[in-house]
């Protein structure tokens, strides 16, 4: 069965990858795109998309009403993403959304709407399947190892340390183990910061170097052994495997799922 | 509740670690040991065990009858291990067995016996919790990544390549993915062996260098990302966390479990 | 002092990076470019180079005669590269050449020419400073460790295994150590290929997975320790640091240097 | 030629490894040992050394006078090490010393003494050849990469962070590059310590986990590439390759050398 898809935000960096994904996947079909500009034109007329036939709509509601797609892939901004998600559900279109910024109240309201309409919806802050599995495995391993540290390595243009993924990983680990001060009780930093940041007793180390893209390793230590789970993201195509999985999965859901981890077994 | 334990093979390399484990664990008590020699003496009389109070039996049946322990930890040879396991079950003692060499028929017969006696038994070829988790995670990740390779690294005194753990890992992965030839269809080895061994299409690379102990990494590759699961075993104490877990778990079982992976969630 | 540069092959993948490098470097100036097409036009007229002011020549000799640059950066094909290098030297222009395919006779002839003209020239098959340092360090470490293995990891579109860099590394190591069979004398492959390819006794393992770009690690093993040297190339910008270094160095040379390793201390 | 060796401190952990080293090396001969106890006895009489024939002296001067060895290997305490080194030189015995605690004045005085006697002497705070090479390579690479971070990983019984080797590595790097603030100028730690300790602008991250022994990696980052140098020390035998090299080298020296790096090419 072919899944008919509308992409919102086709000209953004993620959007372009999504267009490529749909083009390359046999059972996916690009039914239309939603863009802030170029209403009524065809994507094929825009420079980098020559050959990609898809009508452009600036009005999402009209798009859903006329095109009646199966799935909306939304890779826009938090505000537009929220608006598109709600509209899609109202029109019976299953949303797969990669933007952040949904509040718990948003999620609750949209979940109710999905259930009323009896269709699926997937909202995920992180679509990199490898990163999501890393977090899932880390949470599982934490039951069997009392000690763990996180090292995340990014390019040196990143502003915040630790990364959001590192914090999320630490939080997932903290949920399944008793809080604990690691290291020797009398350990001393002769240079401040050597032992890293601590999230509920879990040390996090942030490396920032030109050359790196986005990498993280979670190291568990026990008597005579260590277990390391590492994810390397080399470019943004890493997100597309998760988008593909979400599009295929959302067809079989009847509720809203928040977080890719809940659709990975 | 204190768990009263008999150790078979206390003077072997693994046995000594098990004695240390029981000594260091508050709710474990060393009730007796089974040894080929020194019948009727006390472990404390043997050089390296001074201070470890435990009667020595050469006759396992008499040991179980007189001592009535909760658990037998057996770290002997395949033959002795098999004999002790059966005897323990007959006497209502829960066996935790780290020797290999059980046939499917042995396992079937012993499972029946455990169920008759309504007690637990755990037989595990590998007690390193980290290694078992690595295999478990690899099997899970294989559902989401079509391509994977295994690199195992051991000291240069190891005779066989690939390692048993690498083969077992490949086998677990092969169970959950369609068989597949990886790499470029036209790839060519200009030096034979460069692309490693293949188990059902999964390349395995065996590194042998002085310095290494026992290490393995499983690398999954997808568009723009890789996911790596690595286990490093630095010394044989790595097995003791699994033995401890097994002793604690076997008290709550009413059947035989083969493989540590089945008691890890 | 500003170095005036001509780039041959500006529209190729490496050429584009070189144009960007020259633009971004304060003491570099793009004097002209040599291209098979667009003679007499300006680079600024070509789509992706808008704003980059540089006259285009299809005739290299005329370019050198009229523009009188300090340095030629050549990132074309083996044949064109050879021809440009010779011409540049004749016109007193220092060549920095990243193409392969020079024979020992070519090198000898061009070296003589550079010395007659008393100017420098640098020809390098690999401009990634990190990769060249990895090989240099591997050669140095090989004097102190008798055992070494090489693991190289590339994307799964690569056709040949092992990679050229892995072979070159093995060759450099083989030059400074006695030939030797590594591993246990009685080791056995239960699956053929597990122990990798062998170059003069040095095992090489080639991993091919989607996601990877170009990576290599050289692992030395000794009693109780290992030393690992790893290079990760994430994109082709990695070559530009070497091109920059070569341009700066070639100004102070009076002979031809083959291989970046000879200008790294 | 056989090198006749006296070992001071044969019963310590390093001393025992040194005894084993001398036993296993064809052209080394254990002429005697210096110990605080057991004067006049033979090492063979002491429990763990059965079969190792070597007279025991408590008086170092008498030992050197009577035994006339070629080399002293001293693996005792800072105070005893200093005393033995001076005595050895006076008696024409070449010292190879693995203790720390020599002041610059001590080194100067002992260097003068070695030159008067026209014999070699080697004092090294770190005899692990791999660790010394890692530091040497890091210093070399620092000329070509402006950005670097150090991650050191040790068992969780270690009291100080960062490790001495990490600090020494940072210091060697700082000597050859301009001081620099790495990372984005506006980067922010949302959890204090995430970006590690800083030595002259070089971030150092200290990981402490059970299972680890002593490991360090130095990561250099540049445009599109990283270069990593990693040393893993799995047990104290890692020091013996350096002791062996020092014993062989000291025979050809006519002065004192401080630091193993100065005898590695």
Automatic annotation (TrEMBL), chains A, B, C, D:
Keyword Cell division (UniProt): no
Biochemical pathway: Amino-acid biosynthesis; L-lysine biosynthesis via DAP pathway; (S)-tetrahydrodipicolinate from L-aspartate: step 4/4
One of the record's GO molecular function terms: NADP binding
EC number, as in UniProt: 1.17.1.8
Sequence positions that bind NADP(+): 36
Localization in the cell: Cytoplasm
Residue ranges occupied by any Dihydrodipicolinate reductase C-terminal domain in the UniProt entry: 130-264
One cellular component (GO) term of this entry: cytosol
Main location: cytoplasm
Catalytic site positions: 154, 158
Coiled-coil segments: none
Domain Dihydrodipicolinate reductase N-terminal: 3-127
GO biological process terms, semicolon-separated: diaminopimelate biosynthetic process; lysine biosynthetic process via diaminopimelate
The entry's keywords: Amino-acid biosynthesis, Cytoplasm, Diaminopimelate biosynthesis, Lysine biosynthesis, NAD, NADP, Oxidoreductase
Binding site for (S)-2,3,4,5-tetrahydrodipicolinate: 155, 164-165
Annotated residues for binding of NAD(+): 9-14, 35, 98-100, 124-127
Catalytic activity: (S)-2,3,4,5-tetrahydrodipicolinate + NADP(+) + H2O = (2S,4S)-4-hydroxy-2,3,4,5-tetrahydrodipicolinate + NADPH + H(+); (S)-2,3,4,5-tetrahydrodipicolinate + NAD(+) + H2O = (2S,4S)-4-hydroxy-2,3,4,5-tetrahydrodipicolinate + NADH + H(+)
CDD domains reported for this sequence: DHDPR_N (cd02274)
UniProt-listed Gene3D superfamilies: Dihydrodipicolinate Reductase, domain 2, NAD(P)-binding Rossmann-like Domain
Subunit details: Homotetramer.
Similarity remark: Belongs to the DapB family.
Cited PANTHER family: 4-HYDROXY-TETRAHYDRODIPICOLINATE REDUCTASE 1, CHLOROPLASTIC-RELATED, DIHYDRODIPICOLINATE REDUCTASE
Listed HAMAP family: DapB (MF_00102)
Role: Catalyzes the conversion of 4-hydroxy-tetrahydrodipicolinate (HTPA) to tetrahydrodipicolinate.
Full protein name: 4-hydroxy-tetrahydrodipicolinate reductase
Organism: Geobacillus thermopakistaniensis (strain MAS1)
